[in-house]
Design brief:
This protein is α+β, with helices and mostly antiparallel strands. The chain has two domains: about 90 residues, Glutaredoxin (3-Layer(aba) Sandwich); about 110 residues, Glutathione S-transferase Yfyf (Class Pi), Chain A, domain 2, CATH 1.20.1050. The chain has nine helices and four strands; from the N terminus they run βαβαββααααααα. It has a four-stranded mixed β-sheet, with helices on one face. Helix 5 crosses helix 7. The radius of gyration is 18 Å and the shape is globular. It starts with 5 loop residues before the first strand and ends with a helix.
Amino acid sequence: MGSKPKLYYFRGRGRMESIRWLLAAAGVEFEEEFLETREQYEKLQKDGLLLFGQVPLVEIDGMVLTQTRAILSYLAAKYNLYGKDLKERARIDMYTDGTLDLMLMIASAPFKAPGDRDEAYATVTRRAKTCYFPAFEKILKGHGDEHCLVGNKLSWADIQLLEAVLMVEELDAAALSDFPLLQAFKTRISNVPTIKKFLQPGSAKQPPPDRHYVETVRRVLQQ
C-alpha cells in the first residue's frame, strides 16, 4: 500500500479546501502539514518544492504537485471522478471553472477591509442567485432522471458544486429557496457516504476563515 497523500497549506480553507473535498469524496485518507511560520514556507522554497513560490502543495504518487487546478484534475482522473470521455471531461471542466470562480470570490473576501468585505459577500450572494445557481438549475432540469451534473455518475463537478452551495449558504441560509432542483441535488450529494462522513464534525473539513487564519496567511507570506 502506498503512502498517504500529504497536503501543505494553512489551517483553513483557501485554495486547498476543494482538494480536501475531492480526496474525501474519493474515500482517500491524507495527511496535512499546516503552515504556521515563515520558516516553514521558506524551507519548502529552499527545498525546491514550490514551483511558482505558491501553495497549495500536494505530495502524491512520488510527485510534488502545485497549482490548484492541476492538482484537482489529477485527483479527479486518478479516482475516476472525471467522466468517461473527453466530452464529459470538457463539461466537468466548464462546471468546475464556474464554481471555482464563485468560491474564489468568497475566499478572497476575508482579506479585504471590513466595509469592502461586507460588500464582497453581498456581491457573492447576489451573483450566486442571479447567475450561478440559475445556470446549474437549468443544467439539472435538462438531465431528466440523471442525478448528477455530468452523465449518471458522481464527478468532480458534483463535489465542487456542493462545496460552493454550502459556502454560499453560510452567507445566506435561504440562498437555494428559488432553486428546487439544486435543493434536491444538495440533499442527494450530501448523502453520498464518503461526503456525508466529511461533513461530520471532526473531519478534515475546515471552518470559514477567521481573523487568526487571515493573520497567519499574511504573516507566512509576508503580505
